[in-house]
Amino acid sequence: VAQYRCCDNSCFGLGLVCQDCIVDHHEHLPLHWIEVWNNNYYESVTLRELGLSVTVGHAHGGGCPHQYTTTKEFTVLHTNGIHGVDVGFCGCYGADPEPRNLLLQAVWYPSTPLSPEMGITFELLRQSHALNCNAKLPAWDLW
After folding, report:
1. How far apart are CA 101 and CA 99, in angstroms?
2. CB under 8 Å, gap of 24 or more: what pairs does 57-60 form?
3. What sign does the CA torsion over 8, 47, 86, 60 have?
4. Model confidence, pTM
5. CB 126 within 8 A of CB 119
6. What DSSP character marks residue 136?
7. What gap in Å lies between CA 107 and CA 112, rounded to an integer?
8. What average pLDDT score do residues 117-132 get?
9. pLDDT at 17
10. For position 70, what pLDDT does the model report?
11. At residue 1, does pLDDT exceed 90?
């Protein structure tokens, strides 16, 4: 049943779609906000709640047959808010075994070098830097 919609402007024209379609469409856009129609109003739902799992570091995109996880919910800080994302890391032969390096390849800066459970997008880092340099906005005032 088509009852899901994306609130992000880059999904212009997507309209109302079913759960499988919204998850498939956001395989490479895991930091968008989704709403579901509950017969009275639209309420927020996360892509993680809808079953989206993101694999970082896999060369061909999509899921990895040798995927491993270090944490069930990975927290990502982005320009549009804080997201909980199911993250899997590519375990294919020849792939970088370090989660921090795989996160950097996905342009998510890891919070710690060992066993990161949180990351910040480079886009947010650039925005924060620009606001700090131009408007003198300190990092703790960003949120």
Report:
1. 5
2. 57/89, 57/90, 57/95, 57/96, 57/101, 57/102, 57/105, 57/106, 58/90, 58/92, 58/95, 59/90, 59/92, 59/95
3. negative
4. 0.87
5. no
6. -
7. 15
8. 94
9. 95
10. 65
11. no
